Amino acid sequence: MNLYRRDLSRAAFGAAALFAIVAAVTLAYASLGGSERGVAIVLLMNLVIVLGLQVFAGNSGVLTLAHVSFAGIGAYISAILSTPALIKGTLIADAPLGLARVELPVPLAMLAAILLTTALAALIGLALARLSGISATIVTLALVIVVFAVLTNWRSVTGGAEAFYGIPSTTTIWWALAAVLAALMVARLFKASRLGLRVQATREDAVAAAASGVQVVRSRYWAWVLSCALCALGGVLMAHFLGAISPVGFYFTLLFLTLTMLVLGGEYSVSGAVLGTFLVSVFAEGARYLGDGPVILGWQVPALAGLSLLVQGAIIIVVMIWRPSGLLGDREIDGLLPRRRGAGSAVGAGSAVGAGSAVGAGSAVGAGSAVGGKAQAPAPATLVVTKASKHFAGLAAVQDVSLEVRGGEIVGLIGPNGAGKTTLLNLISGMYEMTSGEVTLDGVRLDHLHPHQIARRGVARTFQTTKLFRELTVDQNIEVAASVARRRRPAVARAAADVLAQFGFEEIAERKAGVLPYGRQREVEIARAVALAPAVLLLDEPAAGLNDEESAELVHVVRGIRDQAGCGVLLIDHDLHFVMALCERIYVLDAGRVIAAGTPAEVQGDPLVVEAYLGARSATSGATARPGARVGQPAPRPSLAESGDLRAGA
Amino acid sequence: MTDVLQQILNGVSLGSTYALLALGLAIVFSIVGLVNFAHGELITVCGYVMLGGLALGLPWWAFALLGILGTMAAALAMERLAFRPVRNASPLTMMLTSLGVSIMIAAAFETFVSPRVKAVPAPDWISAAVHVGGLRIQAEHILTIGVTAVAVLLLLLLLKRTVIGKAMRAASEDFNAVRLMGVKANAIIVAAFAISGLLAGLAAVLILARRGAVNPHMGMFLGINAFVANVIGGLGNLWGALAGGFALGFVEVALRAWLPQGMSGFATGYVFIFVAVALVIRPGGLFGESSAERV
Question: At B52, which helix (H) or strand (E)?
């Protein structure tokens, strides 16, 4: 059993456990009496909506507010379809399409309402999923107001601002519990699913997600549709519980209430949604009791109308200041399950099959370990960059650069700071659009493709400053990339296990990437790129910040990757020892142009290179291999091969 | 023709108040990165301060002034109590905090004053009008447009000529660099909130002069309009906020004036649909730069 499958079954178990708790508490409370039963049912319906909100906002990190509107649309559609014609005759006699005479059985009306609402959400999502952050929040806020305006003013269909009454009241606590069970399963399994992981990856770092082959917009889109479907479910139940609904019931009061519930528990967590819903319901009930002006111990408490809202506002502020990720953060109830250390050995077993038993721990991908049957590794491919240029408002960062990385070859890209090395990597991986030139992989054009498409075609990369999915585990970081590169589930599982074993990550597989030491984080990033099964691997300063021992180790790791996957490697680094030891060919970039190319030995002797690194005068004064040895300087500067870090000389 | 001119005048007048509100939001956003959902509630605060002044028997100009000062104080209090503790948090955390503040302020007035509408009568001269051709120009129009013009001009002078103004502009480019130059972060942020409170106070007085009444939730919609104006203009862009405010004013006036009878209830809906569509086409706002990152 692999980690991913195990995560899914743990998630299902967690959802079931949450349901057991929810059912026990609400049923116990409902047994107290009629009004308590009502409170319990309302809580359950709110929970469904909160879970709907969590599916999108929690996983994508984009706060959308329109969940109440979709609940409202669902409620109205179901109400219009199922309310007896007799009542509709007085409410909406002039409704088009004969809606005034339609009388569907309630389950059918509910189903139709959920489907229609989801379809509408799918339509709106086409535009909305493209927006990020604040724009999405404001557009959904606008949506809430638009939907309210339509519900209020489209009198011939909705009956206007006054209550739409006479809706068959069929929602019992059992219906509500069934809906909660469904919503819990959907929300919790989605979070653990591959699609859910991708959406979370876009939340953690959208750029890195795209570079790992994740379609940011599309993955968010499906989360949005699912989220709205759950909200519609909640709204539909509400209509058939209340029996009378009005537009204002799906407006800011419900919006603030459900938002507070999610925020308090922790929006990243399904268990948090449950906890928050319970706590806020308790506060709200308490506030309502006080607000009505009860008599406590003979003292008449004055009636306070907005007390419940006041408490909600206070909860949000306090949570944001002291614990922005809510009470539970992203922890789930299934995290309480014992972590069987067997998991680690399971990975080991998987890797033994995939990568061959020669894989050692620690210096895992040493050159010797390249035995494994890497069935899914692509055939060696050649990356060709032809006359690539990039101009930033007149500044030529990269100018007519051509280079080639053949399959199985390790190529270095060096040059002083500002030479355009990283810009070139950004052009190849599609982060920047080229001003002119082209990039091909085995003759197929890559330029003009989106970053995720380029990643899927076999060009993987790391970043100069590490971009990890920090809140995801090491295993999940790798899983995201591995699942993008492969269609079949067993292949994904095997590949992910292989990569974990290759890098010796068995011990840290279940730790969050963001809490690892720096050196480990860099390794995880490389591992994530390797999990894409790349034809070409682009490494941006992999040795930066590593000590001598670690960078010597990195030489073996990179060679191991090349030997095992057969991919070409293009790497940038300032550590010349590292580059010279590792690379078979080197390109030297200066001021956006390639000024030299060749084997390490050739490049070291090139006077142009010496000039670029050590300055013009040094190069002309010393025609020998010891540039800088000239009058006025106390000691000769080291030669290129000796100077470990050329930034000092640049 | 005069009908069109009349609507343009109404549009400029309404747009002016939106522009004042949007400017205040934009200044705070450009410096702190906070999308202040509670900005609209500053108007509510001003309304209730004025209501208090009215109860004390002060003349209109006096309680209007009191309202503006109270609004500034409220903006500073918000910053100190709620926003400073989350200053370095994520934009989402800051935004949610401001949403909490917004909810609390509205709820506090509802709980401790009254959930009902209270009258804050404006002096009679506000609705005095002169007729030029077929055009009806009210004192309120002149006051609104005049106050807005002066406020924008003074703001411009402040930002271009004074040290704190220059520091604010620099801070909107790179806050840390400004701190390294020895400018106190708190000074800049407090100034930003003070200005945003002042502008909101001015807008609130003008709005209350037009409406003559206050209720606990009146600020919310105005605040949302100010957002929308900002979004139209590109968040954090001052000129964009100004232009967005006027654009919103015009669209709203036009829709109210020329939508067929029975459809006018949809006016708010149409405005927001217009904005949503605009945002989807140009996610960076109409005047903002389109995002360069291809993700």
Answer: helix B39-55
pLDDT at A185 exceeding the cut of 80: yes
Nearest chain B CA: its distance from A186 CA (Å): 25
Which string of DSSP letters, residue by residue, matches B245-292?
Answer: HHHHHHHHHHHHHHSPTTTGGGHHHHHHHHHHHHHHH-TT-SSSPPP-
| CA-based nearest residue to A469, from A457, A456, A481, A460 | A481
The torsion angles phi and psi of A214, rounded to 5 degrees, stand at -80, 130
CA distance A130 to chain B (A): 7
Q: Collect all residues with Cβ–Cβ distance below 8 Å to A262 and sequence separation of at least 6.
A: A50, A53, A54, A57, A58, A272, A273, A276, A326
Is residue B183 very low, low, confident or very high in pLDDT (cuts 50, 70, 90)? confident
The DSSP result for A287-346, as a single string, is HHHHHT--EETTEEPPP-TTHHHHHHHHHHHHHHHH-TTTTTTT--GGGGS---THHHHH
Buried b (16+ CB within 10 A) or exposed e, A285-312: eebeebbeeeeeeeeeeeebbbbbbbbb
Question: Which range (A90-94, A307-311, A592-596) has the least confidence?
Answer: A90-94
- d(CA A425, nearest CA chain B) in Å: 14
Say if residue A295's pLDDT is above 80: no
Number of residues in chain A: 650
pLDDT at A615: 65
Cβ–Cβ below 8 Å for A216 and B283: no
Reported ipTM: the value is 0.87
Interface of A with B in 139-168 (CB under 8 A): 139, 141-143, 145-146, 149-150, 152-153
Contact check, Cβ <8 Å, A307/B111: yes
Could you read off the pLDDT of A425-474 as tens digits, one per residue?
A: 999 999 998 889 999 998 889 988 999 999 998 899 999 888 999 999 99
Residues A248/A311, Cβ–Cβ less than 8 Å? no
Instruction: Identify the bridge partners of residue A440 per DSSP, sorted by sequence position.
Output: A384, A445
Residue in chain B closest to A260 (alpha carbons) equals B100
> Quick check: A573 and A541 in contact, CB under 8 A?
yes
CA dist., res. A190 & res. A227, Å (int): 10
Nearest by CB to residue B91, choosing from A134, A210, A321, is A134
Residue A172, SS3 per DSSP = coil
* Chain-chain contact of B275 with A139 (C-beta, under 8 angstroms): yes
Say whether residue A407 is in contact with chain B using an 8 A CB cutoff. Answer: no
